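Worked example 2:
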Amino acid sequence: MDALAQRTFNSGDSFIVDFGNHYTGYLAFHVGWSGKSSDAPVRLRLTFGEVPGDVAEPLYPYKGWLSASWLPDEIVNVDFLPQQVRVPRRHAFRFVKIDVIATSDNFSATFSDISVGAVSSAGVDRGRPARYDSPLWRDIDKVSIRTLHECMQTSFEDGPRRDRRLWVGDLRLQALTNYVSFGNHDLVRRCLYLFAGLQRDDGYITACVYEQPAPRIGEVVLIDYAVLYGSILLDYYRATKDKQTALELWPIAKRQIDLALKNVNEKGMFTAPEKDFVFIDWQESLDKQAAIQGVMIYSCRQLTALGDVLDLSSETDAYAAGIEKMIRAATRDLFDARQGVFISGKNRQVSWASQAWMALAGVLSQPLAAASLTKVMGMPAAVRPLTPYLYHHMVDALVASGARAEARRLVEDYWGRMVNAGADTFWEAFDPQNPSASPYGSKQINSYCHAWSCTPSYFIRTGFAKTKGDK
């Protein structure tokens, strides 16, 4: 920074500042001048980068299908020099590129005192292990915790750069990691109530909710997200023993399951509704029939477990028959005994997603589930995940099936590759076979600090062991 203050910059010049780590917050800097006269404004373009490519490669032309307004750049005009500048918008970044678009022929711009006012509601990491098995495990844990830290604001944001809002699926994974690190239970509780207070007219919670400028409902229901609300509430109760909150939110959790079960036909098979959607993963080629069947079974089991600890078993007894019916349908229509894996859809697609969710649902015995998981990982034609969200569930399924060694290897191989690629925080989407892949048609719009990728710390700090009470 001292060397920077000695330099002068004219129209067309640029420089990049590296803050050394990822920060969410507000950029500030001092702009001065040198020359005959500061007789015109200085116009700057600020480009904020979570990864080097954000500032080393052009943002435009942009051809993605998400709004270009998410692209992390600003045009700043400073009318009078010298001036202290504070960018009013919050950004998420490690790097900042400052392009001097225009000064005048009479002066050059100077820059000094560049800083970031970082913000987070995370607090202190109280769960850091005393030792790690290797430097790689230490670094994976460090990057995981930094990812969560940056996403913890006034709610658990999915990404502090984009989308800056609260999603059900992300919340579930963030909360799990929070319980073994920062322990900010109030933030989890706040997010649970945000969803509960913003239901759709029919009682469904939407996949996301907006917090600013005032809380409001999201546009879309993702059924696989909605039914996991009860699982989030169960995890919250296990971590806090806050029975009052769990009882107050119980009707919302139960309502999600009851609504989703209307899409299960008389044979016990989930059929996708016309109005709402199923996510599972951003992998475009993924058939989701088997995975959502597993999500439904898993979520019903989780709600039943929540009812048990809240002394509300009388309200969940009726689910037992439905769970068994869905399990029979899954084993009858979706399990290929010859291959030893679950298939999905009319083309009998084999995917990691199908095996992961069926294993978590407990459809097969633990040895058979472990066999299907390890087998699919060795099948080149099987559809792989695109996002850490689905990779989390694959790791979780391996743990639940007793395949701890395979779970550890998968974390090392997938998240470890991001660490080795220089990640300060873990990314929204990462395909090791196609690192530039984007769910949105352009890597410029990708988020490189994304909440659903923070869970290696959860696995590391729980010793890759099943959570107490899991099926």
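The domain at 2-118 is CATH 2.60.120 (Jelly Rolls). The radius of gyration is 24 Å.
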